[in-house]
Glycolipid-binding domain-containing protein (Chenggangzhangella methanolivorans), 190 residues
Amino acid sequence: MTSFPPPRPITARWRSLDCGGLDHAVIAPEEGRIVVRGTIVGARGGAAPYGVYYRLDLDEAWRVRELALGTADGRGLHLLSDGAGHWANGTGEHLPHFDGCHDVDLAGTALTNTLPIRRRPWEAGMRSELKMVYVPFDSFEPVVDLQIYTCVEAGRRFLYEAADRSFSAELSIDADGLVTDYPSLFERVL
């Protein structure tokens, strides 16, 4: 059974393998929460080149409580979560189409793969189907995305699969649950 150490201050950086992008993130445990701040530059998935700032406020169980995104061209997105699968926009208006989503997945970073990995204990062979709030960086219009995580080797490797079977990759992680290698998409460089 995998158990991760308590969150600690970490600075991490990933290089995008498919578009020459870069993601720089700082994970900062604070009183009763974990704050992740990052900056991404790139052009993944045919999107126009982007520069994105993101902030994730997580509770101590790595559940998303707030997501704030801003772009160099002036777009933004602000979502709130109760940590139990209910979402609202930045003004508190309930977003029922995201009910049941417990995580977010941001198009330009491997960091958000850490959230479902850190949130539960895993043994080899365990599989979990998840509903995500996925934010593509071409439109910044969040959508529900179904994803499957399977623990290949506890504390070391996970199989990530799109539920529609359009994509899969075996992710390598470090002792903190951060992705170190995401074949064809991201490589940890710091």
